[in-house]
Amino acid sequence: MLSYRTDILQYVFEQYQIMPDYPWKSAPNHAVLRHLDNKKWFGLIMNIPQNKIGFIGKETIDILNIKCDPILIGSLRMQKGFLPAYHMNKGNWITILLDHTVKKETIFSLLDLSFNLTK
Questions:
Q1: Over the Cα atoms of the chain, what is R_g?
Q2: What DSSP character marks residue 11?
């Protein structure tokens, strides 16, 4: 399965010196990206069955939830690889497929936006 998971975790460490937090024993691969100072989340990487986000099948897929400017969310959701936020506020968060549908540079730029929105 193609996934930008490792690239994202490396980027977040290099850019912000942040290591992921794995808070759930029942979901050991769900990585929370949070600020060091205020502990607010700016990202959540999950591996979930693809049927949970509207696709056919139960194969596991990596996704990233990020906080996003509500003005951008509507236009992003019109593009391939962007979905309504999975288990988050759909007005302020968006889900990105990490299967290489969305360019890595675009994901990094949106991660930076999320980081700044949650300062």
A1: 13
A2: H
